[in-house]
Amino acid sequence: MKVAIAGAGAVGRSIARELLVNSHDVTLFERKADHIDPDSVAGAKWILADACELAKLEDAQLQTFDVMIAATGDDKANLVVSLLAKTEFAINRVVARVNDPRNEWLFGEDWGVDVAVSTPRLLASLVEEAVSVGDLVRLMTFRQGQANLVELTLPSNTPMAGKPVRKLELPRDVALVTILRGGRVIVPQSDDPIEGGDELIFIAPSEAEPALYDAMQITR
Q1: CA distances, 37 to each of 12, 15, 49, 73, 112 (Å)
Q2: How many angstroms separate the CA atoms of 100 and 118, rounded?
Q3: 86 membership: H or E segment, kind and range
Q4: Residues 97, 11: contact at Cβ < 8 Å?
Q5: pLDDT at 128
Q6: Which residue of 94, 135, 139, 175 is 20 to 30 Å from 199, comparing CA positions?
Q7: H/E element holding 57?
Q8: Cβ–Cβ contacts within 10 Å for residue 213, how many?
């Protein structure tokens, strides 16, 4: 993919390095000349520009990019970048960093954001995940709550043990995407059995969550 990142601070540079490892085409936008350091992210393109300025994005032909990541340390700037990317350049996927959790409610489709990433929220989710067996934990919300990435840890005595994935009667629009088992990451195949203690990762709309409990035979 062709990815634009607004903000070349520690966060932006770290994201760029990860994407480059996976062979994506990465361009960093940085408005401060003294922060431009091509050697710090070998392989990335650098543009000295304020990504909140429409003319600068036009000069960079942002419409040719697949993804915009608003990764600055300023929530106002991240919202402006997201809105411009979506409304002016029709970027397919816009990911925005939320610095202050109190602003998280703003980071939705009205501001062009497809995925909002809040570090405090993710850390809280990981804490909840560590202590909740039999509870759904929301790891991430997509499309302003229309779909969630959720985790469900099965109890050791689950009646689902031994049942193959193909026989799971999941609610409509719910998909099992990953099984975490003993440090392994398993991409579920139809014949893979479910085991007690499995951490199951689903994509699910909010309204389907009660039915997902029932489908996995979890007593609440």
Answers
A1: 12, 15, 14, 18, 29
A2: 8
A3: helix 75-87
A4: yes
A5: 55
A6: 94
A7: helix 54-59
A8: 17
**Distance from first CA to last CA of the chain, Å, rounded?**
42
Beta-bridge partners for 138: 150
The token duo for 150 is 């959720």
161 in a structural domain: yes
Spatial separation of the C-alpha atoms in residues 20 and 26, rounded to whole Å: 7
* Beta-carbon contacts of residue 102 (< 8 Å; ≥ 6 apart): none
Judge if 106 and 23 occupy the same domain: yes
The three-state secondary structure class of 66 is: coil
φ, ψ of residue 82 in degrees (nearest 5): -65, -45
pLDDT at 124 (0 to 100): 61
User: Which among 118, 71, 114 has a CA at the least distance from the CA of 94?
Assistant: 114
Residues 173 and 208 sit within 8 Å (Cβ to Cβ):
yes
Which residues constitute the domain of residue 83? 2-118
Write out the H or E segment, with its range, that includes residue 17.
Answer: helix 10-21
Span 121-157, pLDDT tens digits: 665 665 555 555 566 677 777 655 578 888 888 888 8
Q: Where are the beta strands (DSSP E) in the chain?
A: 2-6, 25-30, 45-48, 67-70, 93-98, 115-118, 136-142, 147-153, 175-181, 184-186, 199-204
Output the domain CATH number for residue 167: 3.30.70.1450
> Which pLDDT does position 153 carry in this prediction?
87
- According to the model, what pLDDT value does residue 49 have? 96
